[in-house]
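Support request, please re-run this one:
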Amino acid sequence: PPPYSTTGHASPRACAHPQRPSNTMPAAEALLARVGGHGMKPCFIRCGPNWTVRDLTKALEVETGLASPEQRLCIGDVDDCLRENTPVKELSAQEGILDLVLVHCPLERSEWQARVRASWTALRMAPAWARADKGLVLSAVQQNGTALRLVSEELKADRDVVLAAVWQSGRALEFVADCLRQDLEVALTAMRCNGDKLGLLGEAMRADRAVVLAAVR
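Re-run finished. Output below.
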């Protein structure tokens, strides 16, 4: 595989817990991963006994804000990255501490587009820029309207995105920006799909005869 680059996106922010935590767990369960990388302070992640490298990247996503699919973990050589299914306990550790290097490998838009088209659930792991990309978001909400909950606040107020979402599922109305809950077309579309969400509309829409009729039919 080609070498991974740390350029093109901002470096991951420092972890919330840069200091080594106290070790109170049995040795078999207390493996700590000390993870560092370009532009970030080392942080410690306490690994479960049955974790794989993929589990570790998910924990690092919470700590660093860097999406799991954009992470590559290495031991020393950044051109030799660990496989996702490798058990963490099989990696070489010194005195219960596993030293790893985190490399940021940004996915291109086309790669995220392919992932989201294959399954809207890919949006759950997508970076913030992808969740604010109108084309990617439209692809997701057309599959499942409730994917609207995963997108940027700006797109929750985008009429095209919202209409696509409520057309697919009236339940998406739960995640629509307040300004569009007063929109007649949005209201009618949502009620035709799921009339029991009438209470989520703005006051004027709840009193609109056409909207109410659409909800009860």
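The radius of gyration is 22 Å. The chain is about 35% helix and 10% strand.
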